[in-house]
Amino acid sequence: MILHQLIDYETLRLIWWLLLGVLLIGFAVMDGFDLGAATLLPFVAKNDLERRVVINSIGPTWEGNQVWLILGGGAIFAAWPPLYAVSFSGFYLAMFAILFALILRPVGFKYRSKRDSPAWRSRWDWALFIGGAVPALIFGVAVGNVLRGVPFHFNGDLRIFYDGTTLIELLNPFALLCGLVSVAMLVMHGAAWLCLKTAGPVADRARFYGSVAALATALLFLVGGVALWFGVDGYRITSSINPAGPSNPLSKVVVVASGAWFDNYGKYPLTIAAPILGLLSASAAFVFISGRREIAALLASSLSIAGIIATVGLAMFPFILPSSIDANSSLTVWDASSSHMTLFIMLVAAVIFVPIIIAYTSWVYRVMWGKVDEKAVQDEQGHAY
Length: 385
Description:
Strand content: 5-15%
Number of strands: 6
Order of helices and strands: HHHHHHHHEEHHEEHHHEEHH
């Protein structure tokens, strides 16, 4: 028996859909507090030393957290080629804005303290703010546009055509609402991290902003659900589909219907656990941040992020990228994947390397454990940012 046939094609597709969700949640949780802390930088730190405390609370680990973004992009490229082609082409300008903002982060970290000039450092502080806030907003905007559908279609030869025009059309009201959910969610997470890693006035201000962000996350998430029900049509497959069939997005019939994104709650009642987790964990994060229970607050904000992202994935299943101009061209778990052999080889690689990444990351955080305060920054003048 050929080794890759030990796991059937349908199961491999489902496994990689789950793994993609895990990687996206991993990126949002691990890199999310970096983005949130950078977004909070101008507000929780009022002088140069306090800003250095914030920067050094994320400085030793932010680069390693980027591996989750690389893993997610690599998984999309190898496991879901049509998804990669459409999303990275259709969202090209949005991706460029994200990359530009992310590029500001390493430059800001490395160059901010090279000069003692207050103006020089202030400019890099705002660059770090942009590097945190812009990706947080645009990632959410992208999710909102995915839920609304993306303007692409396939021709008879399965060539992909993207019919969108400008970045402005991506900034529609529902997508901006999703962007605000993302910003509030990551600011909550970043504030929980700062409460854990800092002390004194910085932690006190982070506690205030984190409490506000946690409440905003819960409220905006609820508003987003209502807007999705009343203002955004979902997608529904009305024909038979072969979960183990060839990857041909045009082999199904899809209709656009009001409320279709809520179908899975009826088909799979356990999926209701995801939005409940997102909502209750954001509320718990508010309680824990306000109550100075730092580890519990960070755990609650992480669970809220996981619940919110899982809500989107579970509501859309089996869709991974619907088309707003040709519903039948929409990409699903069952018709947009790589070959059976490719998915199996990737799974073997993931089973080997993802645990190594998790183990190494855990070791790094253990080594870097402890609070960063003003004295620690001053004592490490030659090494601290």
